[in-house]
Amino acid sequence: MENVLLLDGSKVAAEIKDQLQVRVEKLKAEGITPCLATILVGDDPSSATYVKMKGNACKRIGMLSKRIDLPKETTTEELLHVIHELNNDKAIHGILLQHPVPEQIDERAAFEAINIEKDVDGVTSLGFGQTALGFGEYPSCTPAAILEIINYYNIPVEGKHAVVIGRSPILGKPVSMLLLNRNATVTTCHSRTQNLPEIVKQADIIVAAVGKANFVQGDWVKQGAVILDAGYNEGNVGDVDYEACFSKSSAITPVPGGVGPVTISMLLKQTVAAAEKLVK
């Protein structure tokens, strides 16, 4: 057990932010302050908390954030109008529409309205396609965070069998593509997958992205597997039964303090990168 490598996302995130502060200061010297626009539709308390966290993270590294709060009765047309205004605002470098939106809104239409140059959260189908083909600049932030942790800790990916549990358009699917582009052999599992424990047992790398607390059990994990838990559920627990899986793994992300902090850092990193394009 003492040989298990704890994949400390808070440490990774802190280093990214230190590097970003330097890049932000350089941009400011050029007369540009990176700015992320966040749109919150409705009054979901957890969504409001996430938006506030993102705004505070911007402030800490010297970026600007513009928060747009819209009432829960907002129509798709009204939301699209706001997004088009942000697309045309040269002072805004990244746009984030907080998910989920109220049910009367066509969320996919709203995501698609975001200009690809400002899609720093990786939610457009164009951004997903570019990521899948290997030249996407702004992948979805949680998949990008998982790859950042892998890079930071020099975890071998090429030739390894990665099992991704979950197929959401902003997590399971893009992280499968990113791992495939790194020459992993990828199996993407989901709610209809048969014999899931048997498939997970074959994994050298497990990405848990299913949104169910303590879903991945210890006896599903082969000795020495690397576990990246992208879940965050009520009670501050991930999608992996941490206690049961810890001793089986060679490396594992904690929850909290694993993938989550790096996800926000990637959002900032991609917004700064979008701003830097203006000086190139």
Could you characterize what this model shows?
- There is one protein chain.
- With 280 residues, the protein is an alpha/beta fold.
- The protein folds into 2 domains: 31-116, Rossmann fold; 140-260, NAD(P)-binding Rossmann-like Domain (Rossmann fold, 3-Layer(aba) Sandwich), CATH 3.40.50.720.
- Helices cover 41% and strands 15% of the residues.
- The protein has helices spanning 9-29, 45-60, 76-88, 107-113, 125-133, 141-152, 172-181, 196-200, 242-246, 259-276; strands at 5-6, 35-41, 64-70, 94-97, 161-165, 185-189, 205-208, 225-229, 249-252.
- The strands form 2 sheets. It has a 6-stranded parallel β-sheet.
- Helix 9 (242-246) links the parallel strand 8 and strand 9.
- The termini are far apart.
Summed up, what is this model?
By secondary structure, the protein is of the alpha/beta class. Helix content is 41%, strand content 15%.
Task: Describe the secondary-structure layout.
Layout: E1 5-6, H1 9-29, E2 35-41, H2 45-60, E3 64-70, H3 76-88, E4 94-97, H4 107-113, H5 125-133, H6 141-152, E5 161-165, H7 172-181, E6 185-189, H8 196-200, E7 205-208, E8 225-229, H9 242-246, E9 249-252, H10 259-276
Parallel strand pairs: 1-9, 2-3, 2-4, 5-6, 5-7, 7-8, 8-9
Helix pairs in contact: 1-10, 3-4, 5-7, 6-7, 6-10
